[in-house]
C-alpha cells in the first residue's frame, strides 16, 4: 500500500483475532475505517500468526480461543512489542479470581466462591452457577438447583486442571446483563446482553464455530447507579496497576441489577465485544472514533506517533 506521507512514521497496527474468527464477529468492522480516518493503518491477523510479532502495536479484539492455549497465549502477550490492553492487565484478567481483588477494592461484585484445583468445593443453598475460573464465551458455565450435580460438575472441571467459581444464581439475570463500555478510561456507551445460561442442567447454545455462546444483544441506557459500578471497577484496575486512565484503551464491565444493588458480574479487559452494532449510525461512528483516538493517544505515549524517533 502506498502511503501519502512516506516521510511520516506509520506504525504497523494489528487487530488480533483467532483462527476460527480471524476478523472477529463483525462488530469491529468499522474500526479499520475509524483508524484510517486518524491516519492509522491496521489489519487483522490471528493472534498466533508469527507476523504479529513484527507489529508496532497489537490490539486484542477477538482472541477467543486463548483459554484453550493459555500458557502459549500469555507467553505471546509478553512477546509482542506493544499490547493493548497491557500484558500484565491481561494476565490478571484471564483468571476470574480477579473478582476477589475488585471486592477488596470496594467494588460491589456478585458473591463468589473460588476453589483451586484439589480444594474442596462447597455449594451454598439454592440455585447456583458453577463455572471455570479461566474461560471465555460462557464455556463450561452451568446453572444447578441440585447441590450434588453442581459438585459433580465442579469435579469434572477440577479433573481437567481448571479452578472453579461458584456463585449464587441471581434471578435478576433474567433481565439480562448491562454491558458498560469504557474507551480511553472514559464512559462511552452501554448495551444489554440477554440471559445466556439456560435452565439448570443444560448447556448454553454456541455459535457455529463453537467459540462463544450465542448472545441476544440490545441497546441500553443504564441508570447512574449502574454506571457507578463500572466506574468503580475501572478505577480499581487503574489503582492496582498504577495506570493512567487512558492506558485502558477499552474495558467492558458487565453488571446485573438496576439502581437497587447493582453488582459486577465480570470485568472484560482482554478481548470484549464492545457492542458497536447496538448503536445507531451516528452514535456508532462517535464510539468508533473514540476508540481510534484512544489508540492514537496510546501510540503517542509509546513513542510511536507520526513524528516519533522511528520516523526521523
TrEMBL record:
Keyword Ligase appears in the UniProt entry: no
PROSITE patterns: ATP_GRASP
Listed transmembrane segments: none
GO molecular function, one term: metal ion binding
Keywords tagged on the record: ATP-binding, Nucleotide-binding
Location of the ATP-grasp domain: 99-297
Name this protein carries in UniProt: ATP-grasp domain-containing protein
Organism this protein belongs to: Mycobacterium syngnathidarum
